[in-house]
Amino acid sequence: MAILISQKKSVLAAITLCFIIIALGVFFTGCTKTKAIVRYHELLDLIYQNSLDRNALDSAITAKDYAKAENIRIVWEDHLGEAIEKIKKEKCPKEVYDLNRTLEEGLQCYKIKISTDYKKLISLYVNQKNGHPSAQAEATALSTKMHNDIELVRKKVNNAKKEFTGKYRLYDVNAPEF
User: Fold this and answer.
1) pTM given for the model
2) Does any domain span residue 136?
C-alpha cells in the first residue's frame, strides 16, 4: 500500500512537472512573439518617419523650392543616421531578424542616395532653373537611376515586411510602405 501511494505521488509529481514545463514553453513562446510584434511596430515607426521625410522632399522639389529641398535633405540624412543607429543598438528578437536586417540595409541605401545622389540632383535642378541646358538631361538621367535603385530597395523591404506580417497574421492596412 505504501508503495502504491509513493508511485501515485511520483506520477502526480511527474504530471505536474510536465504541465509546468508546457506552461513555461507556452509563456516564453508568447513572450517571444510579443517581443517580435513590438519590434515590428518600432520598425514601422522608422519606416513612417522615412516616408514623411521622403514626401516632404518630393513636395519641395515639385514646388521647385530647392533651398527648402536641401534643408529637408539634410534633416532626412540625419533621421536616417539616427534610425540606422537605433536598429543596430537595440536587441532584435530572432523572429523579426530578417525584417530588421533588410530595413537596416534599406535605410543605409537611402542614406547613400540622400547624401550623394539627392544632393547632386538638387544642384542640377538649381542649375537647370538658372538656365544651364545640360543640367536637364543629367538631372533626368540621375532621377531615373535613383528611382530604379530606390524601387528595388523598397520592394525588398516591403516583401520582408509582408513575410513577417503573414507569418504572424498581422493585417495592418495602415502600415506605411517603405
Assistant:
1) 0.75
2) yes
